[in-house]
Amino acid sequence: MTHGISRRIAIMTGAASSAFWGVFPVRAFAETIRRRLPWAAQVSDRPSHIDGRPGYIFLGASEAAFIEAAAARLIPSDATGPGALEAGVPRFIDRQLAGAYGGGDHFYLQAPFPKGLPTQGWQMESPAQVYRAAIPAIDRWSVETYGRTFAVLDPPTQDEALKAFESGKAQLKGAPDSKVFFALLLQNVIEGYFSDPLYGGNREMGPWRMIGFPGARYDLRPFVSRYGEPYTLPPVDLSERQA
Amino acid sequence: MAEPLVDVVLVGFGWTGSIMAEVLTAAGLNVLAFERGGWRNTANDFAVSFDQDELRYMWRHHLFQNVAHTTLTFRNKQDQVALPMRRLGSFLPGSGVGGGGVHWNGQVWRFLPSDFQARSHNLDRYGTDVLNATDMTIQDYPVTYAELEPYYDRFEYLCGVSGKAGNLSGKIQPGGNPFEGARSREYPNPPLKMTYGPSLFGHAASNVGYHPFPHPAANMSRAYTNPLGVQLAQCTYCGFCEKFGCGNDSKSSPQTTILPVLMPRPNFKLRTYCEVMRVERTRDGRHATGVSYIDENGELSFQPASIVILSAFTLENVRLMLLSGIGPPYDPRSGNGTVGKNYSYQIVSSVNVFYDDKITNPFIGAGALGMIIDDFNGDNFDHRGLGFIGGGYLGALNTGARPIETHPVPDKVPKWGAEFKRAVAANYLKTVPIVTHGSVMSHRGNFVDLDPTWRDARGRPLLRMTFDFTENEHRMSDFLTDKAAEIGRAMGGREIRVNKRSGSYDIAPYQTTHTTGGAIMGSDPKTSAINRYLQSWDVPNVFVAGASAFPQNAGYNPMGTVAALSYLSADAIISQYLKSPGPLVPA
Lengths: 243, 587
Hints:
The complex is a heterodimer. By secondary structure, chain A is mainly α. Chain A is 42% helix and 2% strand.
C-alpha cells in the first residue's frame, strides 16, 4: 500500500543524520510508554550549579577587562544598590558563554549567515562566537576612536562609546553590528543581575532586595489581599530553599 | 520495519493530542500518540523546588521547542528573502509531553458568536470597503458558537476554570463579561482572589463606563476534582505560570487533567522522542496508510493506522501537510490552493501605570489573574468610521513580575546606567501593567509554505512564514492602546507609559504564541483545507486539530476554541466516521 518508503529511508538517514547528528548530543532514547504513568525515583530535572572555581573559564584577559568595564557602566555601583560588578555579572556571563548557551544549544546555527532585516532577528553564530568576534573589534574601534581600549577609557568616555554601540553609530570591522551586540550584552547583563544566584550573578540576592522581588517564594497567598502593604519576608533563592 | 496496525495515530501529544486520545480511547479505539520530545511530569520535571527559575525556563528556553532542531524561516513580504528564525522569540511553542500546555498561562476564552461569522457579519454591518482595502481573506467558520458551546463547557470543566459567567442562557450576570456568548452554566470554580493592581484597573474601567470582569483562569481558585476524577490544588499565586511548568499542580495541563486517567488505559500507547516525518498515503493519494517516523537514533519506521490525526503545534501541522502532499498548497498570486493559506497572529501592546503612593506587589500573580474589559473586542462596539474591523480585550494582568523580563521604567528613562537603575528600584513595586490583546485578520499576502533553501536537522524543508501586520491591525491596535491609556490615566497614578505596536511585525521580541491558520476549516474545499470536523477534504482519514484551523484570528487566547473544536471532531469520529469511514461533509 505504501510507496517509496524504503527509498526515502535511505535518503533521509543517509543525508540528514550524517550532516547533523554529530552536532547534537543525544539526550534520550525513544520509548514506548504503555499502561503506566511514568515517574522516576531520585531523578529530577534540577539545574546544575555553575563551575565554582575562581576566575574565568571562557573569557580571556582582554575580554574579561571589556566585560567588567562595560558591566560596571551598564549597571553602576551606587547608593541605590549593588552594581553589576558586586552582583557578579561578569562571572555569570563567563559561565553562560562557557556553557550550553554560549555554544548555542537552543539556536539554529546552519550556515551561511547573510545579514537579515531588523525584523528577522538573530542572524549570527552562537553567543560565544559573537562575543569572541565582537570584543576585539570593539577594542580596535576604541583605539581608533579614542586612542585606547575600552576598559581603560574614563567612565564618561566609556558611556559615550556604549551610546555609540547602542545607536549603531560605531562601525565595528569584521564583527557583528554594534547595535545588535550591544542589545545582547545588555540583555545578558540584566540576566546576570536578576537571575537566581545559582548561575553566578545576583550575588546574595542584592539586586532582588534592591527592587523588592521575593525570588523563589512559593506561596504568596497570605499577601494577595493585603492591598498596598509591603511584602515583609526576605527573598529566597533555589539553593537556599533546597538546603 | 512495519508495526501492527492501530486505529488512530496522533502526531504530537500536547493539549489537542491528549484531548483526542482521552475521548477516542474511552470509545474503545486503539490509539498511539507520537511525541518528538520526552515524557514530563510535575515531580521529576518542574517540581516546586526548582521550577521558579526565570533564566532557565524563559530565557534559555528549557521547556520550549528547540530551534536548533527545527525552526522556520521568516520574511515580512513576498519580495524579501526569508531567513531562519535562529532563536525563539515572538512565539514559544512547546516540545515534550504536554506541549505548550505545560508552560502556558491558562487563559481560557470562548470566541464571540460573531467571531464565527467574521466575513458575513462584518460585510452585513460594514460593507466591503475595509475588507478590500487590505486584501482581506477572512472567512466564516463552518461551525457556530451554539454548536461549540457544549464543547467549550467540557474543556472549562476539565480544566476547572476559575471565573464568573457574564451570560447564563441569555441572562446577563453582574460581575461577568456581558459581551460573551450564552453559557449553559457557571464556571466550575469562582474567580481567583484579585491582586491590588488589577483591582485598581477594574475600578477605573468601571468609572470610565466600561465592564470589567475577572479573567477566566485555568489556575485553581480552590482545590478541584475534574470530571475525569483528576485533582488539582489551590494556586499559591507564586507568579511562575507563563513559560514555566507548575510545581503545585494548580495550573491545568494535560499532566494535571488528563494523563493520570489516560496513560493506564490498555488501548493507549505513547511513543516519546519519536518524530513523525510525514503521513504516508496510498498510491492514488486519497487515503493515509499511516506515518513514517524517526527515533532519536535516526531509525526510520512505518506505523500503519486507520486514522491519522495531526495534533502538533499549529505551524508543524501545516508543515506536515505540505511535506506529505495533503491538500493543494496555497498560491498567494492566484489565491488558489488551501494549505498554508490565512496564516495569522495577534497584535499586542501595553500601557504601564506608575504610582508614587501605592505598593502593588506585582510579583504576586498567576498566569490568568487579572481584570479585563471586553468592550472593544470583536464586534462588541460600532466600527463605523474607524477604518478597521476586529478588536481585542484589554486589562491588567498579574502574571508574575519576574524581574529579567519585567522591570518597567517611565518614558524617557535610558535603558541602562545609574538613572535606569534608580528608576527600576523606585518603580518595580509600584506599577500596574495593562495589556491589549488584539485580533489579526487574514490577508492574501500572509501565508506559510515550504522554504526552498533551508532545512531542519533531518534534512526536511523548513516552513517559510510570510507575514506582516496591515493597516487594519495597526489602526485596531492603536485604538485599543488609546483605550488602555484612557483607563490607565483614570487609575490615578503619577504617570503612564504607552507602548504602542508600530512598524512591521518583528520575529525577535516575545509577543504571543497564538499563531493560527494554514490548515483552515471551512465549508468549501476550494477555500479551506479541512471541513467542520477538522477532516481533510483531500484525504478523509486525516484530521488536523489545532489553531491551524482558524480562518483568521480573534482577539482571545485560542486554547478554549482549539479544545472545543477538538472535542467536536473527536465526537464526530466516534458517532459518524467509524460507522461510515469517508468524507463527513460532501465536497
